[in-house]
Every structure is written in structure tokens, then in C-alpha cells.
Amino acid sequence: MSIDLFRLDGKVALVTGASRGLGAAMAAALAAAGADVALHASSQRPARTEAAIAAACAGRRTCAITADLAQRESAQRVVREALDAFGRIDILVNNAGTIRRQPAVDHSDEYWDTVIDVNLSSVFRLCRAAGQHMLERAGGGKIVNVASLLSFQGGITVPGYAAAKGGVMQLTKALANEWARHGINVNAIAPGYMETDNTSALRADETRNRQITERIPAGRWGSPADLGGAVVFLASRASDYVHGHVLVVDGGWMGR
């Protein structure tokens, strides 16, 4: 198989939650493979990601978009601004997310609504807006949603997050069923336990950190860079016959 199948030259990607962590790493990987990248962040300009891409990927263009994805109208605006900047979107990576930890009996409506709005509803709205563009252009496209191990498991004290990520997995399959025949690949990545801001509380808990690490066959937590190969694969021609798949990148956790 030619390595050129993994190149993204001439493509435009929109990555949400690209200011740090998983989103920044995936945006950098897409740029390294040749894509220009629209970088979304929730509030502040993703300056570090812009600088990292500029330093490592000569000739790649970026633009910055800020929007609170908990707001219903934000998804359409994010897609419109990416189109205004680059004229097209070939790849959408729905990475933006949030988490709220609280026992289920105490889990507030505010926590539930915020997590569902950002982690699930905005994913649908972004897919819908980008999908409309891809269908109208009739040139196909790639959509990569970020699911979770909690798409398969229930977790503890994160009912909203587990429900949202389970929904992301099913949404991915539903959209693939409709859009595969149009050359639009809709797939997802389910990261395992990753060293990000969302897991800082778990990593700071000595007992939980040890328990989690002991269960991971790879013997370590994942780093954001570990998602680079997966996102490039799902965004490239190498995955043209992959539809509705959830690719687990977890150091072996699910196989344990």
C-alpha cells in the first residue's frame, strides 16, 4: 500500500477543542500530513497550537475560531467561519468536550445539561452543518468524532459524560448509515486513559492512578500524540472503506 494514501495535501480540516490536549495533537498530526487546519477553541485563541503547526509544518495554513459549543447557534457559526477562511471543509474532527464529576444522586441538571450540550448535541450540529457542505459539494469527506472508553462502559460519578459518549458512538453509526453512499466517512476514535486536563483528578489520586495503570496492558497512560496516527488514518484515503467504526486507542484496556 502506498504511503501516499495517508497524505492530506490540499485538504482542509476543522478540529474542535484544538487549544490543548488531544485536539492540539490531532490538529498537529493532520497538518503534518499536509492539511490546512481551522482550529476551534472555546474561549481563547489557540495560539500555542497555531505556533506549533507554524514551526513544524512549513506552508500549512491555520485559522482560529472561538465559540462556546454549549450554545445552540455556535456549531453553524464555527463551520461557516471555517468555510469563510478556506472555502471548503474536507475533514471534521469533533474533539471538543467537557466533564463534570458528581455522584448520580447529587448530579445536578446544570452538570447534565452542560455535558450533553457540549459532548453530544454540538457534535450532531457540527456533523449536520459540515455534512450539508460535503453533500452539496458532492466530493465526499471525512468526519471523525471523539468517543471514549465510556462509550462502552459506565464509569463512576460521570453519568452525563457516559451518556453523551455512548450517544456519540451511536450517532457515528447513524450518520455513517446515511452518508456512506455519498462518499462521506463517519467514524470515531475512542481514546483510553489519556494524560489530559480532564483526567488530572484521576492521575492525582494515587490509588486510582495505580489501579488504572495496572489494568492497561501497555503499562502507561496514553499521551495526546498517541492519537495522531489514528486520526490521520480516518481522515485519509487509507480509510475510504471504513464506515461507522469506533477505533479504540487505549493501550489494550478494552481487551483486558
Tell me what you see in this structure:
By secondary structure, this protein is an alpha/beta fold. It has one domain: NAD(P)-binding Rossmann-like Domain (Rossmann fold), CATH 3.40.50.720. It has eight helices and seven strands, in the order βαβαβαβαβαβαααβ. The two termini are 31 Å apart. The relative contact order is 0.15.
Concise summary:
By secondary structure, the protein is of the alpha/beta class. The protein has helices at 21-32, 47-56, 74-86, 109-137, 159-179, 200-204, 206-215, 228-235; strands at 12-15, 36-41, 62-66, 91-94, 141-146, 184-191, 246-249. Helix 1 runs parallel beside helix 2, helix 1 (21-32) packs across helix 8 (228-235) and helix 4 (109-137) runs parallel beside helix 5.
Helical stretch tally: 8
Question: What is the CATH topology assignment?
Answer: Rossmann fold
Broad shape: globular
Q: What is the total domain count? A: 1
Using the coordinates above, name the CATH class. Alpha Beta
Question: Order of strands side by side in the largest beta sheet?
Answer: 3-2-1-4-5-6-7
Computed Rg: 17 Å
**Element-level helix/strand string:** EHEHEHEHEHEHHHE
Query: How far apart, in Å, are the first and last alpha carbons?
Result: 31 Å
Average predicted confidence as pLDDT: 96
List how many beta strands DSSP finds.
7
The major beta sheet can be summarized as: 7 strands, parallel
CATH superfamily: NAD(P)-binding Rossmann-like Domain
Proportion of helical residues: 40-55%
The CATH architecture classification is: 3-Layer(aba) Sandwich
Query: Which spans of ≥5 residues are poorly predicted at pLDDT below 50?
Result: none
